[in-house]
């Protein structure tokens, strides 16, 4: 990635990578959900199923995947709003396009970057 790459493009690339990781996580979760349903319909109790389940639990996996996607998506939204505003699009118009208030867009554009929480690296990514 070029150091001169604009922030919105960098955020877009990060969002694409995170989306691919999230899709993979959710596909794996869907397979596990089918297994859990089979165990339950075969007569196993919920406590047996959950106590035997490897960590992270399926609910933790889904929550983490969606949280990670949300965090990266928010960064992209902020950078896209800033880029549109730099191209002289009004805050009101950006708000209309994004489906949020002009106050929300103003906070995105003029506020400092929020403390971006760390996002779990995609599976198989050793850094």
Automatic annotation (TrEMBL):
Keywords: Coiled coil. It comes from the Bacteria. Residues 9-36 form a coiled coil. This is Sigma-70, region 4. It comes from Pseudonocardia ammonioxydans. The lineage of its organism: Bacteria, Bacillati, Actinomycetota, Actinomycetes, Pseudonocardiales.
């Amino acid at each position: 990635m070029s150091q001169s790459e604009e922030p919105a493009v960098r955020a877009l690339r990060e969002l694409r990578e995170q989306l691919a990781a999230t899709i993979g996580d959710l596909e794996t979760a869907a397979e596990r959900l089918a297994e859990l349903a089979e165990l339950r319909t075969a007569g196993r109790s919920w406590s047996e199923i959950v106590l035997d389940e490897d960590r992270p639990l399926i609910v933790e996996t889904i929550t983490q995947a969606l949280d990670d996607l949300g965090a990266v998506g928010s960064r992209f939204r902020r950078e896209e709003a800033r880029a549109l505003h730099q191209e002289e699009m009004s805050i009101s118009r950006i708000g209309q396009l994004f489906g949020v208030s002009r106050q929300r867009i103003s906070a995105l554009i003029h506020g400092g970057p929020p403390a971006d929480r760390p996002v779990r690296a995609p599976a198989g990514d050793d850094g």
